[in-house]
C-alpha cells in the first residue's frame, strides 16, 4: 500500500510542481511585462489611440446628427415663414382690395355730391344772372338816363387820365 500511496504522493507532488511552475511562469511574465516600459508605453499609446478614435467617431456622428437636425429645423422654420408670409400677403392684398373698394365707393359718392353741388351752383348762378338781368332791365325802365350817364362819366374819366398822363410825360 505504500507503493500506491507513494506513487500517489509522487504524482500529487509532480502535479503541485507543475502547478507551481505554471504560476511561477505567469508571475515571471507579469514581472517581465511590468519591467517592459517601452511595451507598456506602446500598449498604453494603442489604448489611448483607440479611445481617441472612438471618441472622434462619436463626436463626428453627433455633429452630423445635429447638423441634420438643424437642417430639418431650418426647413421647418423656412416653410413656416413661407406660409406666414403667404398668409400675410393674402391679408394685405385683401385689405388693399377692401380699401380700394371703399375709396371707389367714397369717390363715387364725392363725385355725386360734387355733381349735385355743381348743379346747385349752376342753378344759383343762373338764378342770380336772371335776377341781375331783371334788375338791370328794371333800372333801364325806371332810370333810362343812368346808362348813358355812366358811359359819359367813364368817357370823362378816361379823357382826364389820358390828359394827366400826357402832361406828366412832357
From TrEMBL:
It comes from the Bacteria. Keywords: Membrane, Transmembrane, Transmembrane helix. This is DUF3618 domain-containing protein. The keyword Transmembrane applies. InterPro entries: DUF3618 (IPR022062). The chain crosses the membrane at residues 145-164.
Amino acid at each position: 500500500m505504500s507503493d500506491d500511496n507513494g506513487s500517489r504522493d509522487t504524482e500529487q507532488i509532480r502535479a503541485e510542481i507543475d502547478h507551481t511552475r505554471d504560476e511561477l511562469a505567469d508571475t515571471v511574465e507579469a514581472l517581465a511585462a511590468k519591467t517592459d516600459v517601452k511595451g507598456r508605453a506602446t500598449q498604453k499609446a494603442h489604448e489611448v489611440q483607440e479611445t481617441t478614435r472612438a471618441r472622434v467617431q462619436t463626436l463626428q456622428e453627433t455633429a452630423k446628427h445635429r447638423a441634420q437636425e438643424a437642417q430639418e429645423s431650418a426647413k421647418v422654420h423656412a416653410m413656416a415663414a413661407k406660409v406666414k408670409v403667404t398668409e400675410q400677403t393674402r391679408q394685405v392684398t385683401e385689405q388693399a382690395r377692401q380699401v380700394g373698394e371703399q375709396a371707389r365707393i367714397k369717390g363715387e359718392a364725392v363725385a355725386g355730391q360734387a355733381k349735385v353741388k355743381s348743379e346747385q351752383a349752376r342753378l344759383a348762378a343762373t338764378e342770380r344772372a336772371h335776377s341781375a338781368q331783371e334788375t338791370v332791365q328794371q333800372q333801364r325802365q325806371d332810370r333810362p338816363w343812368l346808362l348813358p350817364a355812366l358811359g359819359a362819366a367813364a368817357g370823362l374819366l378816361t379823357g382826364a387820365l389820358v390828359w394827366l398822363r400826357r402832361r406828366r410825360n412832357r
